[in-house]
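Usage

Read records sequentially. Each one opens with the input sequence:
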Amino acid sequence: MADMEELKAKILDLCMTAVKPQLYLKDMQKKVGDVSPREIKNAANALVKDGKLEYWSSGSSTMYAAKGRGQSEEKK
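and closes with the structure output:
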């Protein structure tokens, strides 16, 4: 089991620096490494509760984006 704070830091860094402004959980899992999908989901949801990430929906899928990054990229 990964350290939650370390995992949250990796996910937040990934969401801030990724080329795509919105990421699926499976995208995070590829970049974060050997961590279970459940741990990644729990950490990402904790970041949403902390106000650092937000949910972004395309209508059919839910993704995660850094706070404000998903919307601002869509307007460009």
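Summary fields computed downstream for this record:
- The CA atoms of residues 11 and 26 lie 12 Å apart.
- Strands lie at 22-23, 53-57, 62-66.
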